[in-house]
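User: What would this chain look like folded?
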Amino acid sequence: MSELISGKVIGASINEELRKEVDQLKTNGIEPCLAVVLVGEDPASEVYVRNKKRTCGEIGIRSIGHDLPASTTQEELEKLIQSLNDDPAVHGILCQFPLPEKLDETRVILTISPDKDVDGLHPLNAGLIAMGQAKFISCTPYGVLQMLKRSRISTSGKNVVVLGRSNLVGRP
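Assistant: Here's the prediction, encoded as structure tokens.
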């Protein structure tokens, strides 16, 4: 038996919960801030980044966009990320992948502080996920788990197929 799950309804509920959490943080003098780094002009990446920034605004998180040209060097990108790591006003860093081919994504992931790695890609965070002690979980797998949980669908004892092999979805 199959069941259709509305991601929009569940997403709206999650966003409302997050809005309340963000309001509480602001009451305590903390303004959550996400730095989003986009290198190049990949149309799909531009859409993803635009949606992430919009959602941040809807729930009250300040987002700072760093849109860099495809000509950006590895050193320039790592220097920017290090400055975001060092900025106490920035609580999370998201570097939109894929990067232009000349850039080393692994080096970029290793440059992002594990404490600000909201995608959970840094090896320290990936290891914590594997140990069941996740600090950050990539949004797509987390969203799927929330949809199942909030729809009261148990996966216990069931076969599940995950299509894809990306670090964000297929592997965690």
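Helices lie at 7-27, 43-59, 74-86, 105-111, 123-130, 139-150. If you want, I can go into more detail on any region.
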